[in-house]
Amino acid sequence: MSYLYSDDELCLMAKDPKERELAFRIILKTYQERLYSLIKNMVHSHEDTDDILQNTFIKVHKYLSTFQNKSNLYTWIYRIAINETLRFLAKNKAQQRVISSAFNRAKVSDAYEMDSMDEEKTWLLLNEGIERLPPRQKLVFKLRYFEKMTYAEMAEILKVSEGSLKASFHHALGKLNEFIKKEAL
Asked: Which CATH architecture has domain 99-185?
């Protein structure tokens, strides 16, 4: 939600040709940073994240005036971002399969200050394990764990049942635990 306007007000503004650009700029300012974080967690590359984010907001701009308010504006925009990200990942599937542990180490070491080597090793193993998950489980895990989304929010965005999401998250946790146990020995 914007600081000055509710989602409903923004949607009404978007339907008025005179206020459409203002509504879009407010939406862009409100959601850009959160969407960047979501996408970056999935693709890792700043350049790819920027491209996907741009494609997302192009679609938001294009379809904003026809948004029906059947879901929250937030979930509608997140759904577009996730679909754009999944489309990108599908195009670059082969490239996404190979992620070097050196890249993960550099990314994690720069982003987080660790107090001990054990914590760093666990964090590295967690990141490596997440990258090895099947795409659906990886997405569900990241949305739940990093984005702190509820199953209801994810179900609305991904258009699947909450039970399916819970199962995916449970399977992802099991695989991550197995991976960390195996690799930590």
From this structure: Orthogonal Bundle (1.10)
Q: Which residues have a Cβ under 8 Å from the Cβ of 128 and sit 6 or more positions away?
A: 99, 101, 104, 179, 183
**Cβ atoms 145, 154 nearer than 8 A:** no
> What are φ and ψ of residue 4, in 5° steps?
-105, -20
Query: 84, 30, 23, 36: which is closest to 58 by C-alpha?
Result: 84
**Is CATH 1.10.1740.10 what the domain over 1-98 is classified as, yes or no?**
yes
| Chain centroid to CA 79 | 9
Q: Which has the closest alpha carbon to 42: 141, 125, 112?
A: 141
Q: Average pLDDT by consecutive 10-residue portion of the chain (185 residues)?
A: 73 88 92 92 88 94 85 88 86 47 40 46 78 88 84 88 92 85 73
